[in-house]
Each structure stands twice: as C-alpha cells, then as structure tokens.
Amino acid sequence: MGLIESLELGLVTALTLENLFYCFVGVSVGMIVGVLPGIGHLAAISLLMPLTFHVPATAALVMLAGIYYGAQYGGSIASILLNLPGTASSAVICLDGYPMAQKGRAGSALMITTIASFFGSCVAIIVLIFLAPPLARIAMNFQSADYFSMMVLGLVAAGSISQGKPAMGLASMLLGLIIGLVGIDVNSGAMRLTFGMPELMDGVSIIVIAMALFGVTEVIASVGNGFGAGGKSTTVTWGTLMPTRDEWRQTPWPLVRGAAVGTGVGLLPGTGGGSMASFMAYAVEKRASRRPETFGTGNVAGITAPESANNAAAQSAFIPTLTLGIPGDAIMALMLGALLIHGIAPGPRVVTESPDLFWGLVVSFLIGNLMLLILNIPLIQLWVRILQIPYRLLFPAIILLICVGVYSLERSVFDVLLVAGMSAVGFVLMRLGFEAAPLLLGFILGPMLEENLRRSLLLSRGDPMIFLERPVSATFLGLSVLMLAWVLWGVVRPQRPADETTTSKSMRESMK
Hints:
Number of strands: 2
InterPro entries: DUF112_TM
Shape: globular
Keywords: Membrane, Transmembrane, Transmembrane helix
Helix content: over 70%
Pfam families: TctA (PF01970)
Order of helices and strands: HHHHHHHHEEHHHHHHHHHHHHHHHH
Radius of gyration: 23 Å
Transmembrane segments: 20-39, 51-71, 77-98, 110-132, 144-161, 168-184, 204-223, 324-345, 357-377, 389-409, 421-446, 467-489
Strand order of the largest sheet: 1-2
Structural class: mainly alpha
Low-confidence stretches: 227-233, 498-512
Protein name: DUF112 domain-containing protein
C-alpha cells in the first residue's frame, strides 16, 4: 500500500465520530492537566487508561496520545503566568516566559508558545509519516536475537540517560525487570515471586504500577512540596495577545531549530522525550544568539525554541515506539501497555498488520493539534481562573479517582491495597533519588525481553553466541556495553576535592 493510500485510510479512520470524540476528549483533558501544576500527564493517562478497556484499540490510543501532546501545549501556560511548570518539559519556559509576563507581555508569550507547539508537532508528524514505514520494513527482517539486543540497548539507555544519577536509573530499571517476572512462568508453569498470593498469579497489572508510581506518588510529593497554584492570580487581556512586529521577526529560526532538535531527540529511545529536548533547544538557541545575555530576561527565542522542541519530541517519540516496540520514556511505555491490553503486539507488524490503527493514529495527531490550536487561544482566560484553584482541593479528588479506577479493573480490593503499598515504596524510592520512569520501562519490556531471549536460545540450541553472530544484534550489544562502561566510569572516576578545584582555578586566573 502506497503512502497516498495509507494516508487516505488514516483519514477515513480518524474522521469517524468515535475517534473524533476520543481525540477531542484526550486533547482537552491533556491541556487541562498541563495547565494545572503538579498533576502531570503520566497521572492523567494512568487514571484514564481503565476507561479505554471497553473501546476499540484505535480510539484508546487516540485518546491517550491526545492527553500526552495536549499536556505539552498546556504546560507552558502555568510556566508563563505563574512561574510554575505544568509539566517537567515546560520548566525551561519559566526562564523567559515569566519575565515576559512580568513585563506585561503574557498574552504575547502564550500566543507564541501555541504557534511554536503547533509548528513543532507538524514537523515531527511529517517525519513520522515518511520515516516510520521504511523503518518498520527494515525491522521486519529482525530476528529474536536482534529484538533481544535492541531491548537491552533501550533499557540500558533509559537507565543511564536519566535525570538523576545513571547508576540509580539502572537500578530502577532492574527493579522493574524483577516486578515484570511476577506471576506464572509460561514455559514451566512455575510460580515466580508471588509469595503464595493467588492474586499475583497473573502478574502485576500495568495500571497498578502506573497509578502507584505516577499517580499517588506524584500527588504525595506535590503536596509535600507545597506545590500548587492556589493563592496566585494574574490577568491577561485580549489586547495583549498579539505579538509585536519585532517579536514575530525573532520567531522563525528558533521555531525551525527547536523542531529539528526535538525531532532528533524524540527518535532516540531512552532520552526522556520532551524534557531533554526543551533544555537542549534552549542551550542551542542561546549559543546561536548574538545577544545571549538577554536570555532569562524575557527573550522570545527562549520560549519559542524549547516549546517547538518539546512538542516535536512528543510526536517523534512515537516512531521507535510504534515501529520497533521500544519506548523512549514512561509515556511511550504506557502506550505499549495499551497496545498489549488490546491484544496488539507492539513492533513493526503494527504498521503492516494493523494499518488502520497506525495511520488512523498518525492522522489523528494532525487533527488533535488543529483542535489544540483552535481551543488553546480562546480558553486562556479560563486557564487563568483554573490556576487559582488551591491544590489541597484537587489532590483528594485525584486519589479518589485512582482508587475507583483500580477497583474497576477486576473489582478487587487487593489491587487497591497493592497500589497503596507500591505508592509507599515509590515515594521512598523517590526520596532516595531513584526514578520511576526506568522502572516502568523495565516492567514493560521485561517479559518481551525474556521471551526473545528464550526463543533465541531455543533456535541456537542453547548457544549464546547467536547474539554475537548476527551483525545487528552484535551492534546493539556493543552499544549497550559502551553505555554501561560510561556509567561505570562515572561512578568510579575519582572526584577532585572542592578546595583543590578552587585553588587550581585561582592559580590559572593569576597566571593569566
């Protein structure tokens, strides 16, 4: 099937009333979640995932994806108006967005970020349309050994390229792998890590993991940090929405550079998506600027490039997820979980065996971004009012929805208690510096990793050299070893004392 026919199929699929409805619900919820500081799109997707069990797979993915990129739009609103990032990836917008608001240019900043979000998303969607099919065709030639090695690389990358210490990221990933082993071994029928509890025979549900780590834990952490928007207020008038002529002139090249950075980062599994992309785009733009000293004081390029990169990364992250079955971050891991729940095996066969799902999802990205562009600007005044809701009134409702959502899965009180227990463990791990995203990635990829490992060893009659004899597999394993060596070097590398560093620096300055 050619590209034109594929897009026609996607258009027919995305324009059904059911898919349009779920797309609208997804982007609307995502935008609200992005506006409200401290909730996060991970919690929202975890909360709403049980509602997608009884709808077709395409509609479910359209809604969940809409929440994801819708939150990227809304995250910059709180950053600009209140200096509170609605999402982690919009934190860099605070650096220049809030100073613009203090200068009375909040409306202009919101308009520019909306346009930058739309532009970055469109660039990444075009790359997705042209790159995903050939990438899937290449991946169709992969064998089980190649898939195993590729998943090892994805897990190592997710653990080592983390926001905290790489060693802790790898430890979180290994913990996720262990949790993924809970249940009955398919080959032998033996019980693994169930501790005699029959409720764990089928393993731990991804909904339980997601709601515990990204729902309850994040809410507790936000309340403990006093994170919320209550008590602050600001005013945005319609007369201040349009940027000035000078501000328009400063936006084109930052838009392009930010979209390029975001698309490239989103293509790489394990990079964390929008957060890394937005900070990288900000650094690139500051270096490319003729007046870098103006960054942090309300520079238009300081919000244009990160916002474009943020949304480009959110869309391009679907390329390795849908074509290779390798998620780039926790959100993409949840998307893989949604595919598995609906009985669809993630990987290159999604493009060939479920073209209506793949191309319907791609076209829904364009439709959802158009919806966000139309909705975002008229609702700015509403977002300003919502931002004044005290967080102490929001978090009890979130906890209640989590409990109802978990109980609705199997009508099991055990699942609710499991969420409570894992939330407590997750909060302790967060306080110790461990990250939840690598854990979720390990949990999702663990069973697939084990399946491909066993299949490869069966084909080779137990000879582990099969992973080194195939060039693709050997390349992936080699990259994994190099990345692990880099992490270990960072752990064992001797650190110079602070006083020695200061002394040597002062000596160099005196020599000058």
